[in-house]
């Protein structure tokens, strides 16, 4: 356990949420969705729940507001037979274009490049003199830029893969801000005409800017329209050329401005009912607070302590917020860590000192900065252990590929060492190893000390995903060059915002060169409101984690004592996967010996985290157990509410045999334990286990 006061316990949160509704209920930007029955998972995977799904995990289910905005942009900009995806930066849009073309070229090498175009749509905000407005755009950037990637509709599946794997698409809150302004400026929905004539779709980095100027809005600002009746929103006109587009959107497909404002105000009330968000003018302060909190120099409320005088709770000297980089979600941080290391190696091959300027010049001159086309002069990466599904996809699809050691055991580490020792001197060498600590869903912890020794010996970078262990419980930065984490999970807890972080180890052997690449390429594309919500949610994260650790260990002990692994030969539970029982020696080696913070009176070391998986002996027992749980059930983890799912079906439905070969059974139920009352949780699990045992 951490040295923290345990949060007051509460009854089960969000029990029996109907199929397809958000978790938490009635929250517009929830990042989980209720799938309360085993059959719901099957129906979802086979496409039979499409109409019932009000929302879903944002990288897998494109938020309804984003779908609505995409439809508006298609009606305005698309040619017949085209579809689109929306991104917050030109770099992300170019990466999407490269991915679509690159994947299609791998499928049909002889075919000409696909026609994929990028349009920039710019929204500017102007604060009126007679209004005390709190408009998002007024307090963030001077301009909201929306980058629209237009492609043949038949390759939408490839675009969706990019959206899912990388997590760089626009935020649902950003989409709602754009929709609100469009609803106040309906003339801007008129089709633009032929954009194709001057779109340089064949050249990297090119796009067609578009917009309109001098158009006033009646309101604006996320959830603040009741305070901002006098805001004028102006669209910046860069240039426009015209081509045939789809017919104009019917008025019935859009809510009226008043209807939209009412809906948004209601949702904001629900989302802010448990705490006050920072005002928009403090958005930059929110980002600084987040970075300090992740660096370990700030735990609770924001403070004025300068970074160079703050003491970090992480066990690496000299770390400050300057070593922390924010991203829109955890997968975005993993994707950018992968690209950063590949670009670093490419820059080193060019020779000369690495600076931000030299890296920017090198990357800017590369024909393939997204590493989608090849041929490649860098070596493969390594994926060590069975990872979250999209991590492996990123390592396989971008760059020259990866070596996959899916069990993540000491025996796998022996094989990795043999591979490293046998690398031909005239071939590109392995450049990076990615692993989770511990892994999801088997909760295995790799031997990080040995991995670090191999990295130093063979000169590759180590990237560790600490999401499941979390940096309150474990300290992995001394073994890593880069540590990534999904802030969507336990750091936020509220299940209503996405976020990710990348922490650069300032003492790492590659720190200077990696920092040069990041300095050249990094852009904070996290939407301003998401940063504000994330800052609010994370103020008490240490206290929440203490309660979650306590609950999860109690539930794990209860289930483990009744499992076959513990000697109960007739049990329907085959095993409980939890760091306390799985590769414990490796977990304990990185488990905090000292408390992360001085909150509380009793010094306790880090806990074992809030995630566990139960493997049942039969599919029927697993299904009955899952169906009889009354806690919230759906995707995601690290939520304040206990959240369960049949992980293998949800994440690997199309590759169940492959997953089984990696010891990930289809009879597995993953549970992310929350902050609820411990006895209420035990009662729920006891009841569900009794039902499962009755299937014997």
UniProtKB/TrEMBL annotation:
Q: Which InterPro entries match?
A: Cys/Met-Metab_PyrdxlP-dep_enz, PyrdxlP-dep_Trfase, PyrdxlP-dep_Trfase_major, PyrdxlP-dep_Trfase_small, Trans-sulfuration_enzymes
Biased region (Polar residues) positions are 238-255
| Gene Ontology BP term (one) | transsulfuration
Cofactors named for this entry: pyridoxal 5'-phosphate
User: Its Enzyme Commission number?
Assistant: 2.5.1.48
Q: Name one GO molecular function term.
A: pyridoxal phosphate binding
Per UniProt, the enzyme's principal EC class comes to transferase
The record's PANTHER family line, in alphabetical order, gives:
CYSTATHIONINE GAMMA-SYNTHASE-RELATED (PTHR42699:SF1), PTHR42699
Protein's name according to its UniProt entry: Cystathionine gamma-synthase
Species of origin: Malassezia caprae
